[in-house]
């Protein structure tokens, strides 16, 4: 196939893949395929710097409260966490609605006193075109103290799974950063102007000594360390439970659990994330690890852990992936072209396994996510395209063979040829064959004595019958040379005894001619006589024509001798006017009756050849 056509086919396949993966179904298929990488990798060690304080079932049972809790509880939580040595406290809880003024103020004052608290707000994106988005900041006492806060917007992929972390939202040409970014920016130094030190370009978000690679303009792919409940967590109630705080749910028991936690040092110098882990507060999401949904606060923990360890995930460069696709397509196209379909399928399966292993290694060792489903479908499409092309080429080849041979080859031989088209070696090959030449005696004189129409009609009738006999005996009509017939046996499909088939043909041609002669005499038409020569030997056989004209024929001394033997019938008064060479006789001597004539030298041959007169079949 021309290179230009191959390129067109490959471009079409690439376009098809790009188009179908623009649809949600195939996007989700790609997401699910990439999720397997997380599950096959398994859990990663988590940072010992991160702890979660969960608002869980035990918290609601101990406090005997409904949500939202009084702000004084959160103030108390900040105090106790700082007593336990927490380095930073991040609230994955939105304090965006006012409650009791004194409680709201106390919360802000407590956070301002310790200078290590990050609060949460959010951006309400517009649902209708033309409507502006809205910023929902924390309550005014918090913003008046200019305490750091970040947004908690979390955008799921089309299938509802959380795989990326929103680093910022652009609002009125200003970036509003997430609580994770606010945490990192204030981790070493708690500062009011922290957002001014963050730089964003097309590839990464830069803050302090961290560079977070971007995906989808404002997000980062989260390198989840494991499924839900991977990080150490304490109950919100446990931190509040000291000697100064009454727990209604404990029914008068004084457990004072906070002191044991404080004295154990498990919170010392830790980043503490506070958030809901109870199902009823609907802050849980599916993640690549599957299974139980992961709480929003633990997703925040996964993001912080990823940045602190520098263990990022990035998508493979799309231009590099395109180059890989092109190389794969070209290589597989030519590989599948030379392999049989069943071997192509095995090669495809093996390649898919190898590519998945490479993807898993790149994911585990380099944090690179390569398209998986897209690659699989791409390779399947090139396999299907190669199969269709193979089928189309085969059908074209078979149509060519059928058209080329059905007029002068037996149907069963045509079918054998279609089953094994490689037997038609372009340019010819050396084969043992038998050639039969038949010629009308004195046909020039005959045609001069009859009108052209009479000559054409009788020749047509004669040749039609002779060709039927040739085809019925598994011969191939090579050509007509005026009134001369040249037939080949044993090609293009091998025959058990092509010499015998040629001899049968010659005898049947004589019988047929006798019937035709009787018929012509009855019709008042002058009959004619024929001579036949048969020879067996090696000859160059194949498509010996030009690029414009297909000509399946044979050449060589074997063919020349066959033609000379036919001419010898004029010199010998043979019974059937059929002369065969010694080479043919050796193949059929046990099957036919033949009389030895003599040893002759024919034109073009230096060595004498024994010739025989073919009489009948035994």
Automatic annotation (TrEMBL):
Subcellular location: Cell envelope
Family, similarity comment: Belongs to the adenylyl cyclase class-3 family.
MF annotations from Gene Ontology: adenylate cyclase activity
SUPFAM superfamilies hit by this protein: Nucleotide cyclase
Gene3D superfamilies membership: Nucleotide cyclase
Domain Guanylate cyclase, first and last residues per copy: 434-566
Main subcellular location of this protein, as a coarse class: other
Protein species of origin: Cloacimonas acidaminovorans (strain Evry)
Record's protein name: Adenylate cyclase
Enzyme class: lyase
E.C. number: 4.6.1.1
Positions of transmembrane segments: 6-26, 316-336, 342-363, 375-393
InterPro entries, per the entry: A/G_cyclase (IPR001054), Adenylyl/Guanylyl_Cyclase_3/4 (IPR050697), CHASE2 (IPR007890), Nucleotide_cyclase (IPR029787)
GO cellular component: cell envelope
